[in-house]
Amino acid sequence: MVYFEVTDGLKHIISSSTIDKSLKQELVSASYISHESLLQFYLENQPTKSFFELIRKCKLYVGEYIPEECTRRKPKSKEYVEYMNHLRMEEKANEFDRLVNKRSEFQTLYDYSSKDSLTPSQEHKQVKSQITTIFNIFISVASVTYAIWYWTNSSMRLNDAYRVLLCLFFGLIVLVAEVFVYMSYLNKVEEAKIKERSKKETKKVVKSFE
């Protein structure tokens, strides 16, 4: 809401109007008046030719008054609180990493020396990823072993000893294949990191001022 300062000119207009004395005294003694009250005063009395001319008698009030709706805090959303907590945790992890690991005073754009050491949050993600991979490999081996065990009994009617050997054989094949695929993935990731580290920062003078 917009507020106007009750200047001497506006006080004179209010004092010479025909409004109630108590309301007149209240408006004159106040240091500011709202836009709605000023408009209502103009519509009821019309002391000037236009409302714009009445506003010209005033000044925009820029005092210490702050409307209540501006100071009322809005409730924070759940997503905002979770995001801020995530940022605080990352900042604490970075502070801990800066305290534990000493870094060079100057760093370039492609300086990856500080990225070799993982932060606690990154280590947690890495351990979680490894546990998930091990669990997935175990599920794959167990599924194949159970399928071979069921198939050798329902279709081939083999002896239990042969069934166990076949289950172990195919289980080992699946285990080796899963480990090979995972290690290949890690090697490709490591090669990509090494390739990225090998990049050098180049500077080129585009324009010089003399």
Describe what this molecule looks like in 3D.
The chain has 210 residues and is mostly helical. It has helices spanning 8-15, 21-29, 35-45, 51-55, 68-71, 78-100, 120-156, 160-197; strands at 3-5, 32-34, 59-60. Strands 2-1-3 form a 3-stranded antiparallel sheet. The protein is elongated, with a radius of gyration of 39 Å. The model is unreliable at 105-115 (pLDDT under 50).
Our Rg estimate from Cα atoms comes to 39 Å
Low-confidence stretches: 105-115
The ordered string of helix (H) and strand (E) elements is EHHEHHEHHHH
Distance between the termini: 54 Å
Structural class label = mainly alpha
- The outline comes out as elongated
Binned, the helix content reads 55-70%
Major sheet description: 3 strands, antiparallel
How much of the residues is beta strand, in percent?
under 5%
Arrangement of strands in the largest sheet: 2-1-3
Oligomer: single chain
Number of helices: 8
What's the count of strands? 3
Query: How many independent structural domains?
Result: 2
Main location: endoplasmic reticulum
Subcellular location: Endoplasmic reticulum membrane
Organism: Pichia sorbitophila (strain ATCC MYA-4447 / BCRC 22081 / CBS 7064 / NBRC 10061 / NRRL Y-12695)
Membrane topology: Multi-pass membrane protein
